[in-house]
Amino acid sequence: MARPAVILVGADKGGVGKTTVARTLLDYFGAHQTPTRAFDTESPRGTLKRFHPDITEVVDVTAVPDQMKIFDTLGTAPAKVTVIDVRAGLLSATLQSLSDIGFLESAKKGQITFAVFHILGPSIASLDEISETARFVGDANYYLVKNFINNTSFFDWDPATYDSYFKEIKGAEEIVIPKLNEMACEQVEVASVPYVSFVANKSAKAEQANYSFVLRGYVRHWLGNVWGEYDRVKLIDLVAPKMDNAVRQAAVG
């Protein structure tokens, strides 16, 4: 029986595109036919839930009852993959809570698969966050994500400085989320549907839509590149058996 997997998506800095990455992960696992649930910690309104309402619950990750909703159900939930979109400024605090409740110890013992997607901004402050999170992640699967979706222009960090932060976490992997055409990005936001639904020209009610063929093409190409990054770091191998490449290509369209 597969052990439950938890993927934490966050950063202590705001405006770095955490929810964008969480959305691509939900689409990715969906394409791999891997049952997944999500928790949106932008309580009370939520952002992730707008795009994936059927599998997403809005919670206050700082509240003990909501922590229980997430972690007390890991072994019994039909979905064996749990994606948590952590509100800006709460990554370190959430990791501290996971340490306090013994979750990190369970992950260390191999009882739970745990991964952290740390979304980086362009400033040195994001690198400083790595030092903070390094205290907690230990043997977790740790991914440093450069997200260009918001037209972020990463300055060239001094390689020695960057390496000194990067190497603080054993086995850390770097993931690059490429930039999506601005108009295509905007239209997906307006449509309020998953990226895969937009590509498939389906509305939020799974009905035929009338999205632009051109913009759908941009999203298809972009999403394929994002999933290529996830394939490169063998993300699906953490939570489920590999699936046939033809099935994957059919899912992307």
What is the tally of beta strands? 7
Number of helices: 12
Judging by the overall fold, what is the CATH architecture? 3-Layer(aba) Sandwich
Strands in their spatial order, largest beta sheet: 3-2-4-1-5-6-7
The string of secondary-structure elements, in order, is EHEHEHEHHEHEHEHHHHH
Helix and strand composition category? alpha/beta
Unreliable stretches: 243-248
Radius of gyration: 18 Å
Tell me the fraction of residues in β-strands, as a range.
15-25%
CATH superfamily: P-loop containing nucleotide triphosphate hydrolases
Residue share in helices?
Answer: 40-55%
The rounded distance between the terminal residues' Cα atoms is: 31 Å
Overall shape: it is globular
Report on the architecture of this protein:
- The chain is of the alpha/beta class and 253 residues long.
- It has a single domain, classed as P-loop containing nucleotide triphosphate hydrolases (Rossmann fold, 3-Layer(aba) Sandwich), CATH 3.40.50.300.
- It is 44% helix and 15% strand.
- The chain contains 12 helices and 7 strands.
- It has helices at 18-31, 48-51, 64-71, 91-100, 103-108, 124-137, 159-166, 182-191, 195-199, 213-232, 236-239, 245-252, and strands spanning 5-10, 36-40, 56-58, 81-85, 113-120, 141-147, 173-177.
- The protein has a 7-stranded parallel β-sheet, sandwiched between helices.
- Helix 6 (124-137) links the parallel strand 5 (113-120) and strand 6.
- Helix 4 (91-100) packs parallel to helix 6 and helix 8 (182-191) crosses helix 10 (213-232).
- The two termini are 31 Å apart.
- The relative contact order is 0.16.
